[in-house]
Amino acid sequence: MQIYLDNSATTKPRPEAIAAAQNVFQQQWGNPSSLHDWGQRAATVLETARLQVSSLLNALNPESIVFTSGGTEANNLAILGVARQYRIPQHIIISSVEHSAINEPVKLLQKWGWQVTKLPVNKYGRVNPLELHESLQTNTVLVSIIYGQSEVGTLQPIEQLTQITRERGILFHTDAVQVAGRLAINVQQLGVDLLSLSAHKIYGIQGAGALYIRSGVKLVPLLGGGGQEAKIRSGTQALPAIAALGVAAELAATEIEIETPRLRELRDRLFDLLADYPCLETTGDRFYRLPHHVSLILSDHFAAQAQDITGKTIVRQLNLAGIGISAGSACHSGKLNPSPILLAMGYNSEAAKRGIRLTLGKDTTKADIDWTAIVLKQVICRLMPPLVCY
Question: What residues are labeled active site?
């Protein structure tokens, strides 16, 4: 029996998305920029996908969607595309729990002389809107706050935050890679100017993503080239992956009313099954939380007994039992460094190495949840002294 619970790292491509990609490979393989029939058939595929993604976000204009190679490029395009409009360094605000796809371009801005404010979070990983208000400066030009934190699952109060920035005419970007397709998104209601998403988080295939750009928002392109994607992202589009993204987005929008509450129910069942187990405690916010996301940490109460146990230790043990999870963010799972997300939430450096993440998907069943809870308890009991388990 194998159970995959690492859907925040990547999802299994759904058959419909694979079929859409195969159709492009076999039938619609032209260059969308070409004027002949082959190119125009490809262009129809491209624009259909743009409409499908815009509908997922309730964006009024499909032209507000710019296709990228994934969430990382979309985030970089948002951050650097805004920043490169300014000859004199300005001020940008992010949270202390951003993904590396935000942190790394922001580090680059700092090298260029930009001022950067990282908003603190509470012990659940949530930003206080008042602190955003107090951090705004006359030269603040962009705020970027992650919508759903990939490692601990906490959702941020994006609508409250955008109300603050709108009053000052400051652009707002959110990394919604973990949220798109899992929670209903209405970009008008959210009030965001820029929003990033990724195909392989919503059962598309790897290699495609998108950046929503509100009408009137200007970005400087990162790539010089043929001027594809409304001259914002040059390069021939990865049409098979984009077609798959479009189909995945359309199906996600259709299924979300049923799938989101189903995932919440399974998520809460797993939390409940582990609630009476003293070794494990929840990280992140239980209420403001991604519907598919469970994150835990070996409790500090047992730190002495757990000195040699890290999140990676538990990941390996569950893998031997046929269950795939991750140690915090997938992008950090190859390192033994403390999780910067858990550190920002107030955990000490040793505790910040002991986090695990279990993320559910459309194929996850009640039986999967029940068996995972049993196996996880057994694994902890093998790793920890017997007195800890009873």
Answer: 331
